[in-house]
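Quick log. Single chain, no ligands specified.
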Amino acid sequence: MIVALSLATTWSVVLVAVVQPDSFFDNAADAKSWITENFTWFFIGAQNAWVFFVAYIWLKPEYYAMKLGSETDVPEYSALTWFMMMFSTAGTGTGLIFYGVAEPIYHLGYNRYLSRGYLTYDEISQEAINLTYYHWGLHAWLCYTVVGISLGIAANRMGLPLSMRSCFFPILGNMVFGSVGDLIDALAIVTTLFAVCTSMGLGAIQINTGLNELVPSIEKQSIAVQVVLIALMTVIAGLSAHAGLKWGVRVMSIMSFFVLTTLMFATLLADDTSYLLNLLVQSLGDS
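-> predicted structure:
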């Protein structure tokens, strides 16, 4: 049931996008604009609700000390290793690399700041960085935190299957083991699939552009090149997952994290280091 629902939904979207691409993307853009116009309040409010929720359980001693595994379990890896795996495999890595640069640059050139009284380059830069912090900082990571806590408690403390339906057991009870649970799991699969595809698409665009800079004969925005890149990423990810958490995901995550950290420090040192450090500290304090 779950597989059938997931495949039917996914292939329906893919077929419509392939058969009628112009109509599909126009409708998707209209839907996005409608959601943004009517439900921005809900998105902002929900993100802040997660912040207060996680802060509450973190400050409560009985919750803070609770293990997501059994009482006798010990962490298999260090906190730093878990962080690197989470950072590299959650789909946020690609978004951070892409929008971590693109978003503040976009905000930097947005004319609305002039109408709000921002007159200096530093003031506009400050606002651009603050908006990026909101989208890719604490609020963004807390979405992952809420799901991780829910799954950990449901599977390891309550003995339920490791699936999204189990997170709703305290609310829906035994209904999660029927058709309602199938719908929850199918929706989780479809949304996760679309999110991962978005990350892979952004990654392919970035790599394609980078290859064009290194080898000008490679077309800058080539569908063929991007399809090959996505196929390669899929193979590498599959091999990593097949090798298991210890020798696959962990090793690839550590390698990716150190490469990106090196790139970050290289960028910091190659640009106006003092200005970037001032902007970093000032933005943290201002946000």
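The first helix runs from residue 2 to 19.
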